[in-house]
Amino acid sequence: MKIDWAALGSVFGVSLVATVALVGLFTLGIIGLSKQESATASGGSVALARTGAYVCFALCAVAVAFGIYLVVD
């Protein structure tokens, strides 16, 4: 049995980058939702914080759906 180490390394690298990006997007969404109270107190735009958070969550959902599509197809 021969292991293709280059392919294994590339799969590891892509998986690591995708995981960090997905966790980062989800974290930005949570931070956007938590900034609503401080935006209200300072007179800022609550809609902007909420919209940014929802965009981050939508991108996370798209990434997960694409991953499921790749596995199933």
From TrEMBL:
Q: Where are the transmembrane segments?
A: 6-31, 52-72
Q: Which UniProt keywords apply?
A: Membrane, Transmembrane, Transmembrane helix
Q: Give yes or no: UniProt keyword Transmembrane.
A: yes
Official protein name in the record:
Secreted protein
Q: Which organism is the protein's source?
A: Streptomyces zhihengii
